Amino acid sequence: MRVDDLDRASIDHVLTTTRAVRRRLDLDRPVPLDVVRECLEIALQAPNGFNFQRWRWLVITDPHTRAAVAEIYRRVELPAVEALASQVPADDTDTQKVAASSRYLGDHLEQVPLHVIPCHDGGVQEDRELFTHLGYDTDLDNMAAASTYGEIWPAAWSFMLALRSRGLGSSLTMIHLGAEPEVARLLGIPAGISQAGLIPVAYFHGDDFRPGPRHPLDEVAFHDRWGQPLTRQAASTTA
Question: Can you give the pTM of this predicted structure?
Answer without folding.
Answer: 0.92
